[in-house]
Every structure is written in structure tokens, then in C-alpha cells.
TrEMBL record:
It comes from the Bacteria. This is Copper amine oxidase. The keyword Signal applies. Residues 1-19 form the signal peptide. The lineage of its organism: Bacteria, Pseudomonadati, Bacteroidota, Cytophagia, Cytophagales. Keywords: Signal.
Length: 391
């Protein structure tokens, strides 16, 4: 009997138990919060919510390259990433920091270049472009980088690269001054029609990336314990379909993506070592999520997220992201999370992403959104679906 009482006490933290109603104060707090803003939900977030089961389907997508190992480039001039690419679409995520301390902290350039390794002219057209100014505010880069990526449109300009020639992929990176400990964050998608080689290079401010490529011969070894990884990865896009229909009468439930367990890390290849590479965090991978739900108790459904890793270590003290949402109580579109400040800290803070009203006749509805693991934030970032009384 004592164990049963303890179980009931655990389940009814903040008045929310499986199948029961959310505490009226928390319910009202959710309804009064603007989309993207922080709402405090004391006693609620750390519950063991039922997990929403799902299937991941690998979708057609670009070759995916990420440069994030070594994350901190400690030598004044070096190639931090170098991989071959084939004709077609390419997604490139640059996430590197000027880490030069010896003999002193100095300004550097971190840039990305592509070399035409084919026998004919290469034509390059940018499809998605996101380039942030170097900064020590990594959360800002991660959140705004995703927002800019989602908002960007294909460019009409086509650049021509002669066989054996190399050019800067992003001219802004060529002009940026990167001070010690500043992050260079670039997120691109482009199409090419010849085989090539993509490199990420740290060099001095007077030397162009293509010129530095000619004189640097070796690629830095990876650190392994710092950064998400580097290489060419076999998955760039997932479609996520839930197994069952979520019913508001059953209480809150959570969707966990990019945790390395339920959703394993994407595998790839790192050519400087000739080894299999793991993308710890699945950063830069796009998840197109479809979730079916219904309301048999006339309640709506609020979607919130929070920083579940805040207590793990000093690197996990904040979380910030951006998602593309469909329409609910609020209009659909790109939503920075949070939108009312830089990041969210820890429990009891949650971020309201969207509220979905119930269908008048209780029919099944579909929620659709795009999620990508946020750079600079610890994972996972749980997506919790909370029944709310909208009356």
C-alpha cells in the first residue's frame, strides 16, 4: 500500500497524472504564453513521460559534410577538414573555433573552399545559405544559423570553377576576422556538376583560403573528445512517422530525437584516417516529423521543449534552437526558441512552441514540423506534447 501511495504521489506532481488534468495554474500559464516564449512549469518537466514511438525513414538528400573535429583549431595555420564530394547536391556545416593560444592569442581566418578535381568546368549554385559573424556567443550562432538556413532561398548566380582551381564557398568567411575563442558558423547547401574536394582552413588574415590550400599539405588529426565529428555522412534527411495516434485523454507524452540511443548517431566516413566516423548529435540532419493526434476529451495540445541536460556539466547550462512549425493557435513558420531571450536555462523553464486546438468533431489531425538538432546545445531536447483545456 505504501509503494502504491508513493507511485501515486510521483505521478501527481503538480497535479498532473497519466490521464488526468494539468494543474489549472500551469494550464493557464501555457495559454497566456506567446509562441516561442519561456513559460515556467514548476514540478512538471522532470516527470517520466510516456515515450512516443516512431519510425525513421531515410529520405533522399544531399551529401552531408560537417567540420567539427577538432572543434578548436589550436595551430595558426591548418586544414581542419578535407573530404571529396561527388557531382550533385552537397550540405556543408562549418563549426570551428579559433583556439590558437601559443605563442599568443592571435586573430585568424577560418574559411571553406572547394576545389574542382574533375576534368571539365565545375558550376556551383547555392541552394541554402546561412553565415553568421564570428562570435563567442555560440547559442546565438546555433539558433540564428538554423533560422537563416530555413529562411534562405536558392540563388540564381552560378559560379564557374576551372579544373584544378579552388574558390571560397562563402566570401563572407574570407573577410571575417576571427578572434581567439570565436566560433565560425556556416551552414550551406549547394549543387555542383563535377567531382570536387571541400576543405575548411584556418590561416592568417592576408592569405585567401584558396592560396592557403596550395601551401598546406596535411590535415589535422581529430581530437575525438571535442566536437560532434567530421567527415561525409550517409544521412542528411529523415522522415519521422509516429506509430500510434496520440490521444489527449491519455495525458502528456514526449518525442525524443537525437539522443544517441533511441535515435542513434548517423555514420559516415572520414578520409584522412580512412575510418568510419560517427556524427555525435546528428547536428545538421533534418527531421521532417508527422504526428497524428486526436482529442476525445475536447482538449487541445501544447508542444513545449526544455533544456533537459542543464545539470550535466557547465557546457549544458543553456539551450536554444529554431524549428519550422505548421499552423496551430499561432501561424506556422520559422520559430526561434526561445524568441524572447537568447536561451533557456533549466527546469522549471520550458519554451512554448505551438498550441493545437482540438477538432470540433474529435477527428484525427496531423501535426507537421521540421526539427534539426541545435548546434551549441546539449542533446536531447525533448519535445513534450501536453493536453491543455482551452476553454
Amino acid at each position: 500500500m505504501k509503494k502504491l501511495s508513493q507511485l501515486l504521489l510521483l505521478l501527481t506532481v503538480s497535479g498532473f497524472a497519466y490521464g488526468q488534468s494539468l494543474d489549472p495554474k500551469l494550464n493557464q500559464a501555457l495559454l497566456q504564453t506567446k509562441q516561442g516564449s519561456i513559460v515556467e512549469l514548476p514540478g512538471f518537466l522532470k516527470q517520466n513521460f510516456p515515450s512516443i514511438e516512431y519510425h525513421k525513414i531515410v529520405q533522399p538528400g544531399p551529401q552531408y559534410l560537417i567540420s567539427d573535429d577538432p572543434e578548436y583549431i589550436r595551430v595558426p595555420e591548418a586544414i581542419a577538414f578535407q573530404e571529396p564530394v561527388q557531382p550533385g547536391a552537397v550540405r556543408l556545416y562549418v563549426y570551428n573555433v579559433n583556439g590558437v593560444q601559443e605563442p599568443s592569442k592571435i586573430d585568424r581566418k577560418i574559411t571553406a573552399v572547394i576545389k574542382n578535381t574533375g576534368t571539365s568546368d565545375m558550376h556551383l549554385r547555392m541552394l541554402k545559405y546561412s553565415s553568421q559573424k564570428p562570435t563567442t556567443n555560440y547559442f546565438k550562432s546555433g539558433k540564428e544559423g538554423l533560422a537563416d538556413y530555413f529562411a534562405s532561398k536558392p540563388e540564381e548566380k552560378i559560379r564557374t570553377i576551372k579544373p584544378g582551381q579552388a574558390i571560397a564557398i562563402d566570401e563572407k568567411l574570407e573577410k571575417n576576422v576571427v578572434k581567439y575563442d570565436e566560433l565560425v558558423h556556416g551552414f550551406y547547401e549547394f549543387v555542383i556538376d563535377q567531382p570536387g574536394q571541400v576543405s575548411v582552413i584556418q590561416t592568417d588574415l592576408k592569405t585567401s583560403g584558396p592560396a592557403a590550400l596550395k601551401r598546406i599539405k596535411d590535415v589535422l588529426p581529430p581530437k575525438g573528445h571535442s566536437g560532434a565529428g567530421r567527415g561525409v555522412f550517409g544521412v542528411s534527411n529523415y522522415r519521422v512517422l509516429t506509430d500510434t495516434i496520440l490521444d489527449t485523454k491519455n495525458g502528456a507524452a514526449e518525442l525524443i530525437l537525437a539522443d544517441g540511443k533511441k535515435d542513434p548517431w548517423v555514420q559516415g566516413y572520414e578520409s584522412s584516417r580512412g575510418e568510419v566516423a560517427s556524427l555525435a548529435g546528428n547536428y545538421g540532419v533534418m527531421y521532417e516529423v508527422e504526428l497524428k493526434w486526436k482529442s476525445t476529451d475536447s482538449k487541445g495540445l501544447a508542444l513545449v521543449t526544455w533544456n533537459s541536460r542543464a545539470d550535466d556539466n557547465k557546457w549544458c547550462g543553456g539551450m536554444a534552437t529554431t524549428m519550422v512549425m505548421d499552423k496551430g493557435k499561432y501561424e506556422g513558420g520559422i520559430v526561434q526558441l526561445p524568441s524572447d531571450r537568447l536561451n533557456t536555462k533549466k527546469d522549471p523553464e520550458a519554451i512554448l512552441i505551438q498550441i493545437y486546438p482540438p477538432a470540433p468533431n474529435g477527428e484525427v489531425q496531423t501535426i507537421k514540423f521540421t526539427y534539426s538538432p541545435p548546434g551549441a546545445s546539449c542533446l536531447p531536447t525533448p519535445l513534450i506534447f501536453v493536453p491543455v483545456d482551452m476553454k
